[in-house]
Amino acid sequence: MARVFVYGTLKKGQPNYSHMISGAHGTSQFQGRGLTVEKYPLVIAGKYNIPFLLNKPGKGHRIAGEIYDVDDQMLQFLDEFEGCPNMYQRTPVSVEVLEWENKNSTSAVENILECHVYSTITYQPEWMHLPYYDNYDSFGTHNLSYVLRESRE
Q1: Which of 1, 60, 101, 117 is the S-S candidate for 93 at Cβ 3.0 to 4.6 Å?
Q2: What does the H/E/C string look like for the chain?
Q3: Confidence category of residue 41, pLDDT binned at 50, 70, 90
């Protein structure tokens, strides 16, 4: 099992969450909620309003997200879904656990975890000047709703 931190459209209540729970692409188990230990710029960019975590530690905000344990099949699906390694790169990030799903879990004693996160080092320079978010919500007040792949031109 691998540990993954999701901050965008794969979170509960977001447009691509169904991929995390359908079982068609492997298994994932929600572990809890957390915040990145370091600050990162999280922007919404492009004509499809995609959330991007720019791999520029130290800038931006601590990012809120969800922690999942995923099997190898799900990790491979997520790599393909996220366009890894071209669009996003899967990199390790330290996450402070804010809330455990199962407080009786043996992992629940850990406060800082290392997780895989999909971030990018390949982006338009002007993205550094976009608003930075600490908690992505496709339906937020920014009015930049994510455009599902099947709805794109």
Answers
A1: 117
A2: CEEEEECCCCCCCCCCCHHHHCCECECEEEEEEEEEEEEECEEEECCCCEEEEECCCCCCEEEEEEEEEECHHHHHHHHHHCCCCCCCEEEEEEEEEEEECCCCCHHHHCCEEEEEEEEECCCCHHHHHCCCCCCCCCCCCCCCCCCCHHHCC
A3: very high
